[in-house]
Amino acid sequence: MRYLAVGYKVIAITDHADYSNIGTAVKSILDFTRHWPKNSKIRVLPGIELTHLPVTQFKPLALYARRQGIKIIVAHGETPVEPVATGTNRSALEADIDILAHPGMITQDDAVLAGKKGIFLEITSRRGHRDTNAYVARRALKAKARLILNNDSHMPEDIITPERLKGFGIKAGLSVSDVDCLYRGVEEFLKRKKLL
């Protein structure tokens, strides 16, 4: 309800998952979203964030989550703030994911792959991860890859208004019209997947 209070219409609820907890995390998230009131003014989608995995585990875990009914799959990218295995960005992009979160060390080749597969690269307001937003934006624009704005909240204090979130896109070097296009692109994606 905090997201509704600050102006959001659709969110994906996710939890960090690996082989140790994906079964319980997926079940809990699916139960939560199934019981979300159908007449609510905010739509809550079931999601999962594949986090700190060995590179060989992205494909099987994404496949498992998708088969269970998860609609939005996020992969924790290579970031200078929380080091992960080298090659994480590429392995995640080769799996069935929707968003590569905080991919602050993304190569141009990986940005091109994201563009070809229609995977969103994240621009975030989260402290630390946001330090590479401009780099990610440049790589994505050059590769014609999709971008998504996300606050990556872990605590209530992380939830900011959509207008404030747009400011992080501007700080990353995007124009106001670029940011507006991002929102339209996400809306089109959700409609195409029949999630709106």
Describe the structure in your own words:
The chain is an alpha/beta fold and 196 residues long. It has one domain: TIM Barrel, CATH 3.20.20. The protein has eight helices and seven strands; from the N terminus they run H-E-E-H-E-H-E-H-E-H-E-H-E-H-H. Helix 5 links the parallel strand 5 and strand 6. Helix 4 runs parallel beside helix 5 and helix 5 packs across helix 6. The protein is globular and about 40 Å long.
CATH superfamily: Metal-dependent hydrolases
| Major sheet description | 7 strands, parallel
Q: What is the C-level CATH assignment?
A: Alpha Beta
The dominant shape is globular
The termini sit apart by 18 Å
CATH architecture: Alpha-Beta Barrel
Low-confidence stretches: none
Beta-strand proportion: 15-25%
Number of helical elements: 8
How would you classify the quaternary structure?
Answer: single chain
User: Can you give the mean pLDDT?
Assistant: 95
Percentage of helical residues?
A: 40-55%
The value of Rg in angstroms is: 16 Å
Helix/strand order, N-terminal first: HEEHEHEHEHEHEHH
If you consult CATH, what is the topology?
TIM Barrel
**Class by helix and strand content?**
alpha/beta
